[in-house]
């Protein structure tokens, strides 16, 4: 882990320039658009409060209490997906930056999106994913041994985009526990371009004792047309355990 620290920091610091614009049918006044540089490894409800306040100044009174939601080229953005995953799925590596996103306060698409009235919902989702990953890796022993202050530090590190604050606790989830020879399984999700994803039990090694590569993992999921590991394109021959460790997906 110590040798990977600078790589982990560079990945953590990955940002996406975003151009937010208000839907044209939600105001009679043309507002100024809003621009932000947002972390790939976060969630939209954690980074868009300034966007919400900016556009609420010009929307009608009846929409002031409406839940804000966003779309990219007509596709509603799922708040429970990491921002970098959404960008890779909807825009890809050939994107023309900044990423243009449309903001809405009406006509919430309940058939597509879950409602997210506050950040507590995001925290519950994040911690649930964390516990699920720990069950796969350590049979749940690491998270169950953490105190409430450790959970809070992880969460606040994510909310405040503080690498050192987050990784001071998250490193425990990246290491084998003393009585366990490596990870039992590697928690990973394979996202399809339609927004769905698959999860499988992925062992870090083969039956013959060799380390599995990222190519092995992709073949398990039926190799997609376009390969992308959030937040960077993969090296197919890289050890699977090592490659997954270097991404936010490793704790999901």
From TrEMBL:
One of its GO terms (biological process) is piecemeal microautophagy of the nucleus. Belongs to the ATG5 family. It is a peripheral membrane protein. This is Autophagy protein 5. InterPro entries: Atg5, ATG5_HBR, Atg5_HR, ATG5_UblA, Atg5_UblA_dom_sf, ATG5_UblB. It comes from Culex quinquefasciatus (Southern house mosquito). Conjugated with ATG12. The keyword ATP-binding does not apply. Residues 185-221 form the Autophagy protein ATG5 UblB domain. The gene is 6049231. Involved in autophagic vesicle formation. Residues 120-175 form the Autophagy protein ATG5 alpha-helical bundle region domain. The keyword Disulfide bond does not apply. GO terms for molecular function: Atg8-family ligase activity. Residues 11-105 form the Autophagy protein ATG5 UblA domain. Its main location: membrane. GO terms for cellular component: Atg12-Atg5-Atg16 complex; autophagosome; mitochondria-associated endoplasmic reticulum membrane contact site; phagophore; phagophore assembly site membrane. It is found in: Preautophagosomal structure membrane. Keywords: Autophagy, Isopeptide bond, Membrane, Ubl conjugation.
């Amino acid at each position: 882990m110590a040798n990977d620290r600078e790589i982990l920091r560079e990945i953590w610091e990955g940002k996406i320039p975003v151009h937010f614009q208000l839907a044209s049918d939600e105001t009679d006044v043309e507002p100024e658009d809003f621009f932000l540089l947002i972390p790939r490894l976060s969630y939209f409800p954690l980074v868009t409060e300034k966007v919400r306040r900016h556009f609420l100044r010009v929307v009608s009174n009846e929409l002031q209490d409406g839940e804000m939601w966003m779309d990219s080229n007509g596709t509603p953005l799922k708040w429970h997906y990491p921002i970098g995953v959404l960008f890779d799925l909807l825009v890809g590596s050939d994107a023309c930056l900044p990423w243009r996103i449309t903001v809405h306060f009406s006509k919430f698409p309940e058939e597509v999106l879950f409602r997210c009235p506050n950040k507590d919902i995001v925290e519950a989702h994040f911690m649930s994913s964390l516990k699920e990953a720990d069950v796969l890796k350590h049979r749940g022993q690491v998270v169950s041994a953490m105190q409430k202050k450790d959970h809070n530090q992880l969460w606040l590190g994510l909310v405040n985009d503080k690498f050192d604050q987050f990784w001071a606790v998250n490193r425990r989830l990246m290491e084998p526990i003393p009585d366990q020879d490596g990870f039992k399984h590697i928690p990973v999700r394979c996202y399809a371009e339609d927004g769905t994803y698959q999860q499988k039990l992925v062992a870090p090694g083969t039956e013959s004792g060799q380390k599995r590569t990222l190519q092995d993992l992709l073949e398990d999921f039926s190799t997609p047309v376009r390969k992308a590991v959030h937040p960077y394109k993969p090296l197919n021959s890289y050890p699977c355990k090592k490659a997954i460790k270097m991404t936010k997906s490793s704790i999901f």
